[in-house]
Design goal:
Blueprint (H helix, E strand, L loop, with lengths): L4 E5 L10 E4 L10 H4 L3 E2 L7 H7 L6 H13 L2 H11 L4 E5 L8 H11 L2
Parallel strand pairs: 1-4, 2-3, 2-4
Helix pairs in contact: 3-5
């Protein structure tokens, strides 16, 4: 049985349907109060490295290469990935991110990675 993994901007209102709410960015999102985020966890270790994040700069032209590089980083972060798998085993997991671009961000890649890699 596949675990449901959703992605959502951290700026959107929390919902009881979110299940486990996990922020997967390295930096805390501007303008969001910690108590308002209603996080289950903040797993910084699964976020892209500062070097990769700065290189990508949310440029859709770099999206394919970003995905390749980020997946390579995730392979070296098995402990943090396993932490997310454990949370997902408890029910629905919602990965939260702060980027404006809903199609080109680390949470999109991470959600696919969690569902593909056993």
């Amino acid at each position: 049985m596949a675990t449901e993994i959703a992605i959502k901007r951290v700026y959107e209102a929390p919902s009881s349907a979110d299940g486990q709410r996990v922020l997967v960015d390295r930096l805390w999102p501007r303008g969001v109060k910690k108590e308002d985020a209603k996080l289950t966890e903040w797993v910084k270790a699964v976020a892209p490295s500062d070097e990769l994040r700065k290189w990508f700069g949310h440029d859709p032209a770099k999206w394919d290469e970003f995905q390749t590089r980020y997946r390579a980083e995730l392979k070296d972060r098995s402990e943090a990935v396993e932490e997310l798998r454990d949370l997902a085993a408890k029910g629905k997991l919602t990965l939260l991110y702060g980027a404006h671009d809903e199609a080109h961000n680390n949470a999109v890649v991470l959600a696919k990675y969690l569902q593909e890699v056993k």
